[in-house]
Amino acid sequence: MKRKLLTIAAALCFVAGAKAQTSYGLKAGVNFAKLIAKGGNITTISNNATNFYVTGYADVPLANSFSIQPGVSFQGKGGKDFDDTKLNLMYIEVPVNFVYSIPTGNSGNVFLGAGPYAGFGIHAKAKLGNVSEGMSFSDANIKTFDAGLNLLGGYKLTNGFLINAGYGLGLTNMAKKPVDGESVKNRVFSVGVGYQF
């Protein structure tokens, strides 16, 4: 699965590179991640776990003020239980966002976007206080594959510097062996900065 994701990302970047006026960007910031678990009529939402993300992307214009942004991203997700046990989940993701820019004079553009993502889990770690333990996704009873929808927005200055926020809505049931309709899904709110060359 990891090889397939990297192949898709490479193909998207190749296609993006073949287009005129394509630019490239890098974003990084903080994730506030939580897990939503449902079983029967009970829904449990974890506390936020602070993590990070780093994303490289291509911006390919499709029309005036409208572009597609394929990319590759390292995303830290997970959640924190009420006893402060933190579960860190690290993914390699391939997002494909459609972005609309709104000019705001000579200073820059407001941008809004949305699109799907697919991710593959590469590392899991549980932490309580100063004690942490690496584990596999199977040990955490979670599937390695995740997919969902990204929502994003922000402001890009004319010099390429940008400030952004986003929300990742996990749509895949990550429960390894669900019982009685059990489901576990990712939810991530993020803030960060970046630069588009």
Gross morphology: elongated
Sketch the major β-sheet: 8 strands, antiparallel, barrel
Strand content: over 45%
**Percent range of helical residues:** under 10%
Q: What is the mean pLDDT?
A: 88
Order of strands across the main sheet: 1-3-4-5-6-8-9-10
N-to-C order of helices and strands? HEEEEEEEEEE
Number of strands: 10
**Radius of gyration, CA atoms, in whole angstroms:** 18 Å
Assembly classification: single chain
Summing up helix and strand content along with how strands pair, one would put the structural category as: mainly beta
Secondary structure tally, helices: 1
How far the N terminus sits from the C terminus, by CA atoms, comes to 30 Å
The residue ranges in which pLDDT falls below 50 over 5 or more consecutive positions are none
Task: Summarize this structure briefly.
With 197 residues, this protein is mainly β. The chain contains one helix and ten strands.
Topology:
Layout: H1 2-18, E1 23-39, E2 42-45, E3 49-63, E4 66-80, E5 86-103, E6 108-128, E7 131-135, E8 145-157, E9 161-170, E10 183-196
Describe this entry's structure for a reader:
- This protein has an 8-stranded antiparallel beta barrel with strand order 1-3-4-5-6-8-9-10.
- The mean pLDDT is 88.
- Helices cover 9% and strands 67% of the residues.
- The protein has 1 helix and 10 strands; from the N terminus they run αββββββββββ.
- The chain is mostly beta strands and 197 residues long.
- Strand 5 (86-103) and strand 6 (108-128) form a beta hairpin.
